[in-house]
Amino acid sequence: MAAHGGDDVIRAAGCVLWRRAAGGGVELAVIHRRKHDDWSLPKGKLEPGEDSLTAAVREVREETGMTCAPGPELPTSRYEVAGRPKEVRYWSAEATGGVFRRNHEVDDLLWLTPEATLTRLTYEKDKETIKAFLTARHP
After folding, report:
1. Measured at the alpha carbon of residue 117, what is the angle toward residues 111 and 46, in degrees to the nearest 5?
2. Domain residue ranges of the chain, discontinuous segments joined by +
3. How far is CA 42 from the centre of its chain?
4. Cα angle at 66 between 75 and 114, to 5 degrees?
5. Tens-digit pLDDT profile for residues 3-58
6. How far apart are the C-alpha atoms of 75 and 129, rounded to whole Å?
7. What fold does the segment set 6-137 form as a domain?
C-alpha cells in the first residue's frame, strides 16, 4: 500500500456481534446492506471526536438494533476505498438485548453458526475477522 499521512485515513469501527446458541456454541450476526448489496459485519465511520470503541458500540446499535457488551479487541482490518486507506477496528461483542428493525442502511440481519457466517459474508476481509474471533474464543 502506498504511504499515506494519517489525516487521509478513513477510520471506522465495528463488532463481531455474537450470542449464545440454544443448543450450545454461538451464533454470529451478519447484516445485509442495501446500498452495497452485500453481507457484512456491523461497522461504520467514527464521528468527529469519537473513540473507536464508542463508535463500534454505536454502529452495532444503529445497524442491528442490539445493545452489546464489548469484549476483546480483534485485529484491525486495513484496505483501500476509492484510493484512500481505511482502517476498521473490531471488537468481539456479546449481544445483550434489542430487536432488529430494517433501517436506511440495513435491510436484513441473520444469526448464523460460525461456519455459515464464513459462507455468507461477501468480503474476504470480514471472513478473516471472523477467523480471528474464533481463534480468540477458542485458542
Report:
1. 80
2. 6-137
3. 4
4. 50
5. 444 578 999 999 999 999 988 899 999 999 999 999 999 999 999 999 999 999 99
6. 7
7. Nucleoside Triphosphate Pyrophosphohydrolase (3.90.79)
